[in-house]
Every structure is written in C-alpha cells, then in structure tokens.
Amino acid sequence: MDAKALSAWLREFARLVAENKDDLTALDSAIGDGDHGTNMDRGLTAVVAALDAEPPETPSALFKKVGMTLISKVGGAGGPLYGTAFLRMAAAADSVLDGPGFAKVLRAGLDGVVARGKAAPGDKTMLDALVPAVEALDSALAAGASFPAALRDAAAAADRGREATIPLVARKGRASYLGERSAGHADPGATSVTLLLRAAESTLGA
Ligand code: ADP
Ligand code: MG
Ligand code: MG
Fold first, then answer.
1. Which Pfam families does this one have (predicted)?
2. Residue 76, ligand 1, Cβ within 6 A
3. What span, in angstroms and rounded, lies between the C-alpha atoms of 111 and 113?
4. Residue 174 DSSP code
5. What are the tens digits of pLDDT across the range 25-45?
C-alpha cells in the first residue's frame, strides 16, 4: 500500500463520517456534548481538502498531514486523540506498507491514543473498538490469513467492541461526568473507530 491507496482509505473514512454524522452526534448528545459527528466531519472535510490541494507522496507524509489537520481543526477530546494517533502512525510508517506494516502502523496509532488520553479498555472510549481491532488484525495475520480477511476480522472486532461499550459506565472523557447515566448508550468515539475500520476493509481489503 502506497500513499495513494492509503489516501483512498482516509477519504472513505471521511465519507462514512459525513454519512453518519447525525448518528455520531446523537450518540454524543446522549452521553456527551453532542458534537462528535460535527467535530469529526469538520476535521475530515479539512483533511480531504488538504489531500486534494497537495497529494502526499509517502504514507508517512499522508499520516502526518492527517494528524496535523485533525489537531488544528478539531477542538475537544476526539480530534486531538485521532490526530495524535495519525502522528504516531506517521512515525511508524515505512515507504510502502504490507499487511504486517499496516498492522504495526495501526498499533502505533493505538499507542498514541493511550499515551495522550490515559484510558484503558473498559473505560467506554474509542479504545474499546480500537484495541480489539488491532488485536484481531495481528492475530489474523499471525495465523496466516490474507490481508483482506484480516481486515474483515479487525472491522468485525471493532463492531463487537463498540457494541460492548453500551452497558459500560464511562470512566474517561465527558461521558464520565454522567456516572451511571452513561450506561445504555454506545460510545461515540468507539463508533467512529468502527467507520475507520470499515473504510479500511472496503478500500485496502478490496
Ligand atoms: P469532546 O468529548 O471533547 O466533545 P468528541 O465528542 O469529539 O470530544 O469525542 C468524544 C470521544 O472521545 C468519546 O466518545 C471517547 O471515545 C473519546 N475520548 C474521550 N476521552 C478519551 C480518552 N481519555 N481516551 C480515549 N478516548 C477518549
Ligand atoms: Mg463531544
Ligand atoms: Mg466537545
């Protein structure tokens, strides 16, 4: 996978976020401040504009541009957390990514989210979808699965992780201010992570 293929992934992520903007915002209205859909859409619209203006030539340059754009255009928690993930991905990316290289990059992004947000699985955050996705990707590749099949597993694991946030009580982010009342709704950030993985499956795994 080169910068062009990876750009197609992130453009598809932007498209899915735009398509699901109202759903993401409704989830964030239930347990946060109702801006996750508009935040992510604003940031990713700026990302697509930046990619159109000057297509990056390497995966690393692409991820850096995405990370910097998200950090500069999106306030709140979600944008900077995603932005940090992409900056870490930039640092971990080789000039062309094979399946294991992509898995390494995604894990570096996950480590960035942990470093910045200090959350753990079970805290009802984006990590509850991202951690199982990265683990599923690694274990499928280690078991000899094809890259498309591994991406399918990762996307399915993200979906299950997101579903599993529904009964959780939030321990990080704004939703934690609600205490027990945060239970009963899926986490918005975990939901946007499922879109990131679904976009990977349909573009990089096609
Ligand atoms: P804000 O909460 O500042 O309005 P968003 O609504 O864009 O920002 O993003 C909220 C999402 O950010 C949450 O649903 C959660 O998934 C994620 N999040 C919040 N705090 C953390 C954290 N410390 N670590 C990981 N993810 C977090
Ligand atoms: Mg919010
Ligand atoms: Mg906010």
1. Dak2 (PF02734)
2. yes
3. 5
4. G
5. 999 999 999 999 999 999 999
